[in-house]
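W.,

You were right to be curious about this one. When I first looked at the sequence I had no strong expectations either way, so I just let the prediction run and decided to look at it fresh. Below is the sequence, 179 residues in total, followed by the output.
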Amino acid sequence: MQVINTLPWNELVTKSGFGIDALLATKGQPHSIFSSNLKNVDSLTWVEIFNKMNDFYASTPAARTSVISLEVYSNEAVAAVPDSATAYPWRDAQAYVMFQMGWTDSSATNAANALGIELRNMVVSTSGYSGLTTYVSYAHGEETLEQKYGADKLPRLKDLKKKWDPKNLFAYNNAITPS
């Protein structure tokens, strides 16, 4: 039996993540997100990832709040709009993955972050892209501007930034500096 429900947009994250968003938003609950866009989802890579997560949960109980979020959306409507009409670079992505590494004790910080990077590198190697690409809102922070905004889109975005925000007032998260 197949059950399909329609959810209001403001319940999507809570329902699809089985409430994990409340834990990740808990004040003082540290976590890091390592993400990548995917054109391909390679099953052998995912078997290895799940095995690594299983071993990690066993060896690092303080990081059992770590989760994997794989988002898959239709990109049919995105593909109907000409690439030149939008600033978004990764229009051919079939999925977005986030390794949301969480921990309840600082002793797990280094292990959680190291595994997050390792798992992200694993999916990047089979993603169908030539290197790391990430949805800007899911970026960890150490990615290059090209990895977040696309090398072909970045010059136009820098020009727009120079025109509309020359004093760099909107400079908080993943900001483009005026050219």
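Here's what jumped out at me. The CA atoms of residues 35 and 173 lie 16 Å apart. And, maybe more interesting for your project: The first strand starts at residue 31 and ends at 38.

Coffee later to discuss?

I.
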